[in-house]
C-alpha cells in the first residue's frame, strides 16, 4: 500500500503547529466552566436569561489575536456555539438565541474573523453537535439536524474564508473494528486547558506551569501533531492576566525555537526517554533534550535532571559537530555510523537560564 501524503490544505495546517482554543459564552458569566448548566441542573428558562446580561463589553478580538501572535500561535479556534445552544454569530433568523439578540447586540464572530485577519492569524470555527436549548434535539432529531445544517451553512457563507470547522464528533462515534491499513493521510491535534476547565472557572486555581505546557508543545511536534492550547475568557470576553502571562512566557520560548516547531517534521532518529529529534527540509536534524540542570553553585540552583551523556539512535548520516542552538556551544560526541548510535555530552543551562527543552543541531 502506498504511503498517503497530506493535501496542501492539511500540510498548511500541520505547519501552523500551535493554536489557541477559546471557550466563551453565556456560561462564562457563571464562572463555573462550560458544562455548568448541565452539571448544575440549571433550568433552561433560568439559564437563557443570561443572554440579557451578556454584554461582551471587554471582548476585543484584535487584542486576543495579538496575544495569540505574541505567543507564537498561528491560528485560533473559537466556540461559535457550544452545547448550551447560544450562538456568538448572527444566525440570520434561525434563532433569537444569539449574540445580536443579547445585551451585546453584536455579531461577535464577525469581529473575531476581522481581528484574526488583521493580525495574520487563521480563524477556525468550533461548532457543537449537541444542543441543550433546541427542543428538536430531543423531540425531533431529523428537524434538529436540518437546523444544525442551516446553522453551519450560515458560518460557511457569511464570514469569508476560514481555516476550517472543528466539531467533537468523536463523542458519539463507535469504536472502529479495525484501524489498520488507513489509506488517507490523517493530521493530528492535541487540545489542552491551562487549568482544569475549558470555560472560565473563577475558582479554578490549578494552573499548569509554563514548563509543563512548553514540554507538551514539544511532545506534540515530536509526533507531528498540532498543539491547541485553550483559554477561557471571563464574562466580558477578556482573557485573565494569568493566562495572558502564561502565553507570553511560551511566546518567549517560541522566539528561540519557533521555526523548528513550525517547520520540523518527525525524524527516524530516536532519543531516550522524552528526548527526540525533528528534521527540516534542508536535511538538518535537531535534537530536543529534556531534564538538564542549571550550571552554578549547588546551593543556589535547583537540580531538575542532570548533565552528561545523551544517546540518540538511527543517526546514519556523517556527523561533524553537535552544538546547542541557543549559544552555539560545541558539544563533545562520539558517533558510530554503522550502528547509527550518537552519544554527546549535554552541558547544563548557563546560570540564569532554563528553557525546559533545549535544542542541539547536528552538522
From TrEMBL:
Say yes or no: keyword ATP-binding present. Answer: no
Q: Please name the GO terms that the record assigns under molecular function.
A: alpha-L-fucosidase activity
Q: What is its EC number?
A: 3.2.1.51
| GO CC terms in record | lysosome
Domain Glycoside hydrolase family 29 N-terminal spans what residues?
11-140, 167-259
Any GO BP annotation = fucose metabolic process
User: Is Acyltransferase included in the keywords of this UniProt record?
Assistant: no
Keywords of this entry: Glycosidase, Hydrolase, Signal
* UniProt similarity note: Belongs to the glycosyl hydrolase 29 family.
Question: Which PANTHER family does the UniProt record give?
Answer: ALPHA-L-FUCOSIDASE, ALPHA-L-FUCOSIDASE-RELATED
Annotated protein name in UniProt: alpha-L-fucosidase
Native source species: Paenibacillus taihuensis
Amino acid at each position: 500500500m502506498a504511503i498517503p501524503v497530506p493535501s496542501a490544505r492539511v500540510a498548511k495546517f500541520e505547519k501552523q503547529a500551535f493554536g489557541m482554543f477559546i471557550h466563551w459564552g453565556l456560561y462564562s458569566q457563571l464562572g463555573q466552566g462550560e458544562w455548568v448548566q448541565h452539571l448544575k441542573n440549571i433550568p433552561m428558562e433560568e439559564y437563557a436569561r443570561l443572554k440579557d446580561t451578556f454584554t461582551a463589553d471587554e471582548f476585543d478580538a484584535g487584542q486576543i489575536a495579538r496575544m495569540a501572535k505574541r505567543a507564537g500561535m498561528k491560528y485560533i479556534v473559537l466556540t461559535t456555539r457550544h452545547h448550551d445552544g447560544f450562538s456568538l454569530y448572527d444566525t440570520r433568523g434561525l434563532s433569537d438565541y444569539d449574540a445580536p439578540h443579547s445585551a451585546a447586540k453584536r455579531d461577535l464572530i464577525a469581529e473575531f474573523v476581522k481581528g484574526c485577519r488583521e493580525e495574520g492569524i487563521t480563524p477556525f470555527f468550533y461548532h457543537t453537535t449537541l444542543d441543550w436549548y433546541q427542543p428538536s434535539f430531543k423531540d425531533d432529531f431529523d428537524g434538529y439536524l436540518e437546523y444544525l445544517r442551516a446553522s453551519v451553512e450560515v458560518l460557511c457563507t457569511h464570514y469569508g474564508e476560514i481555516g476550517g470547522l472543528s466539531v467533537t464528533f468523536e463523542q458519539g462515534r463507535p469504536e472502529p473494528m479495525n484501524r489498520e491499513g488507513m489509506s488517507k493521510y490523517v493530521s493530528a491535534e492535541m487540545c489542552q486547558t491551562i487549568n482544569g476547565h475549558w470555560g472560565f472557572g473563577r475558582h479554578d486555581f490549578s494552573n499548569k506551569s509554563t514548563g509543563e505546557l512548553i514540554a507538551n508543545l514539544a511532545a506534540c511536534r515530536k509526533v507531528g501533531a498540532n498543539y491547541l492550547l485553550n483559554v477561557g475568557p471571563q464574562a466580558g470576553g477578556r482573557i485573565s492576566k494569568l493566562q495572558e502571562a502564561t502565553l507570553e512566557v511560551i511566546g518567549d520560548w517560541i522566539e528561540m525555537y519557533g521555526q523548528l516547531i513550525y517547520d520540523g517534521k518527525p525524524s527516524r532518529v530516536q532519543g531516550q526517554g522524552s528526548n527526540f529529534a525533528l528534521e527540516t527540509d534542508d536535511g538538518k536534524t535537531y535534537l530536543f533534550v529534556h531534564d538538564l540542570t542549571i550550571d552554578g553553585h549547588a546551593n543556589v540552583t535547583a537540580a531538575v535532571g542532570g548533565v552528561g551523556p545523551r544517546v540518540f539512535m538511527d543517526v546514519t548520516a556523517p556527523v561533524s559537530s553537535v552544538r546547542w542552538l541557543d549559544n552555539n556551544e560545541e558539544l563533545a560526541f562520539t558517533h558510530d555510523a554503522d550502528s547509527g548510535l550518537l552519544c554527546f555530552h549535554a552541558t547544563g543551562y548557563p546560570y540564569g537560564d532554563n528553557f525546559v527543552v533545549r535544542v542541539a543541531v547536528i552538522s
